[in-house]
Protein: FAD-binding domain-containing protein
Organism: Diacronema lutheri
Amino acid sequence: MAPKRALVVGSGLGALASAAMLERAGWQVVVRAQEYAALAFDDALGIWSPALAALRAWLGASRCDALASAGRFVGAVDGYHDGRGRQLCGPATDLGEGTGERPALLFLPRSALLRELRGACGAGVRFDARAGSGVTAAELRSELEGSWHMIVGADGSDSTVRSTLVPRGAVPTALGFHVYRGVATAPLAAGADASEPLLPRGRSFQAWSTSATRFAAVPTTSPACAAHAPPLDAAAWFATSRGPPPAAGDVRAAVRALAAAHFAPYAAALVDATQDAHLAPPIAARAHSPGLLRGAHGRIARAAPGGAGGGGGGGDGSDGAAVALVGDAAWTLDPILAQGGGVAIEDAAELAACTAAWAPAHGAGALDAALRAYEAARRPRLRALAAISLLPDALGQMAGLPASLRDGLLAALPRTLSSAAFEVAMHASLAPAPLAGRWRYDPPQPPPRGAPAGR
Ligand SMILES: Cc1cc2nc3c(=O)[nH]c(=O)nc-3n(C[C@H](O)[C@H](O)[C@H](O)COP(=O)(O)OP(=O)(O)OC[C@H]3O[C@@H](n4cnc5c(N)ncnc54)[C@H](O)[C@@H]3O)c2cc1C
């Protein structure tokens, strides 16, 4: 039987998860990456239960256990606070550790996740790294002359695969604020967290100031903390501010000034406890809006000999390649949701499940149908996430009198009501459809060994 061949473009979470899971779905995979140099900034990523479930289903319990021991499960999400630390809504929502009924959130270094995903790729995956700017549009077009049945674009928000091969693919738009982030790996200044002892209890918190800025922190792990005795907790943090990022300059001074001016002392202390190597340059936040979520798959015709246009239709994929987008290339999410990386993993699992039963003998039309099923399966969840991110952005980035009103109104709400609303929103962000009343996302299952079964 002819092998089914996929070209995966990218080297992030989406690309490596796609390679590992497509291999398990019977594909021969080549990963063409921009480069495999060390990450410019090894940020801490929060991976929620749906992606953890997809990893467990496809890559096995032992890989998941290795990930869990490389990271830290967050004990609780503490709702929203004002700049001075007063809780505005939602008491702590307790989280689980990935196995029970509670949703779970694992925070770990991005490098640890990438390493585990790469280690999960077997002999059916070949890595072909390109130095410099990565695969170009011209190279992609010429790849069509290769014998790929499917090209997977996992090349991030500015996807070259999307712009070259998926004409209907939508591009993300600016959200109107920028994001600073860092990982604090040194001890906090004495007393800095006296009024906010949230991190030692393993909780995540987010504060909204009255000046269109937000600050959040969450416990995580970092190799840099291992040297401390007793071992230190690392804390990943982010801050947002309105407008485009400032021009090149002193990032530390800018974010420290913002933290000190608008938040309780723990914020500036976390910035101070962040070494330069763990402080990222600010980025302009971008996302697809719910209305722009379209075009995560397509088909690109191969030029016929003599240049007469596409397609022979030989039933073996010779009439072109199917194109699937995963992760940020398909649907960039608001970074404050902390779900884009998890979504890339879920996408990979769904793509593998939808194409597992396909064989070249079934023809190009059947592969297109599988990709339509992939897009249809993912769209409700992505719509829900894009919609859910609108409210915290609108409320969190307020300034002046409206923000004071916001704080007053939220603080005046009965706590049971605001905590119920917070719980509903959080659970809806983990479910396949909004307000589905359950947190669980049923991960697409791998086919049983030796008997691939698609969905
Ligand atoms: C501030 C911030 C905080 C975040 N926090 C979280 C979080 O806590 N949890 C979470 O789940 N998500 C989080 N995210 C989102 C997450 O980082 C992304 O959604 C995730 O990285 C998407 O993975 P990806 O593989 O689709 O794209 P990327 O990670 O962008 O990877 C794309 C890869 O493709 C490569 N590439 C690009 N162009 C080419 C080309 N032409 N040829 C070859 N290779 C190419 C790039 O080098 C890169 O390696 C956050 C994002 C931001 C900005």
